[in-house]
Amino acid sequence: MNDAFDEWIKADVGKVSVQLFDVQLEIWLGKPSSLCIYTKNCGGGVVMEHNGDVYSCDHYVYPEYKLGNAYETSLESMALSAEQQAFGAAKYETLPDKCLSCDYQKACYGGCPKHRFNETHDGTYGLNYLCKSYMAFFEHAGPWIHQMAQLIRHGRSAADIMQHPQIRARREGIQVVDPGSVSRNGPCVCGSGKKFKRCCGRV
Fold this sequence. Notes:
Elements: H1 2-11, H2 19-28, E1 47-48, E2 53-55, E3 66-69, H3 75-79, H4 82-93, H5 97-100, H6 105-108, E4 118-119, E5 125-127, H7 131-153, H8 165-172
Helix pairs in contact: 2-7
């Protein structure tokens, strides 16, 4: 995923939509995740089988998660039932302390509960088995996603990240100029013609 992100950020931001990257940008902008695995609570996507049986989630089509049958009970009442609300709230309420104290908690909220079957170092059950992978991705892509979020907050396009000197260097093979060595009032290293503080230094 890190390799895919590196390829995407070089030339495809704003052109190719990658759900994971788009959702993480939403989250870093303070918006709710549009992907259920990264929301604080889940339970908003019930599933109905061919015979009308309704379950809490398509990953939990088991007897204990059956909410009823659409031929007998309305979908609305099942989706809003106390059982379904409890199912959704349990995603956050059952997070282990490791997740609750994690710097990236809001980026994943422990991921999908179906993947939370590992134990933490102190033996607490409920750690997502993809945790190490999530952490590797957040640490790798997080700084760039943060800069894209900053661009958007300043009224610019996330695609402007592709003009960052380090990204240009990856794409074009040009020498990387350390932004820290450039005067804030000097011309931007990306070649935009603007002052550094008004362009790449702004993020």
